[in-house]
Amino acid sequence: MGNAIADYWKNGTTGRLSVFSPMFEEDEIPVKTLFREEDEMPEIERKALEMVKGRTLDVGAGAGCHSLILQKRGIDVTAIDISPLSVETMKARGVKKAFEQDFYSLDGRYDTVLMLMNGIGIVGTLSRMPMFFRHLDKILASDGQLLCDSSDISYVFENEEGVIELPDTDYYGEINYQMRYRDIIGEPFSWLFIDAETLRQVAEKHGYAVEIVAEGKHDDYLARIFKNNQ
């Protein structure tokens, strides 16, 4: 993805960024959407940006579209991504604080942690959620908030009779992916699509409350997650 982002920034065009999964047919990520302006964003993302407050961390920031909007609003935002080419592109686009950084090795305290474009998916599997919340404990201010979006993908398992038949796996929202851009093939990775009720149950076990603040047209939603003592 980083190569595709860098190519689009430099040339205004890219090759095909393909996504593969054993569960689905080949799909494509339109790289142009990673550079979209606020008026091109879905309502859920615009709502999240309105709710941002204080010192903010933009996780998996990609090309930096959300960070750039927040900067213009005077928000102190730090953008992180594990792709060095994505970080270079963000800096070239004017993101003031952009770093090649893994979420789990990050230090500091933030009033808002922002994880958009199904950003909570970086957790990968339900079994990794405890590790995620333990690290959130370290970096989230006592009155801070996590703003993230995800989707309930149970609908993709609906049969011809309209009955949902979930696969015999630990959790139906755990998807294995691999990306290809031009002649570059990335390593396989796990991505988590978590339904709102499961997110609520997991969060509560770790001392957090979940408020669903917006719902999209495609079984997606925006959640505000905060410590139960607020």
Structural description of this entry:
By secondary structure, the chain is an alpha/beta fold. 25% of the residues lie in helices and 30% in strands. The strands form 2 sheets. It has a 7-stranded mixed β-sheet, sandwiched between helices. The termini are far apart. The model has no long low-confidence stretch (mean pLDDT 94).
**Which shape, going by the Cα principal axes?**
globular
Instruction: Give the class from helix and strand content and strand pairing.
Output: alpha/beta
In which order are the strands of the major sheet placed? Answer: 5-4-3-6-7-12-11
Order of helices and strands: HEEHEHEHEEHEEEEHEE
Number of strands: 12
Number of helices: 6
Low-confidence segments: none
What is the average per-residue confidence, as pLDDT, rounded to a whole number?
94
Biggest sheet: strands, sense, closure? 7 strands, mixed
Strand content: 25-35%
The helix content, as a percent range, equals 25-40%
State the distance separating the first and last CA atoms.
Answer: 38 Å
- Gyration radius from CA atoms, angstroms: 17 Å
Observed structural traits:
230 residues; alpha/beta; seven-stranded mixed β-sheet; five-stranded antiparallel β-sheet; 25% helix; 30% strand
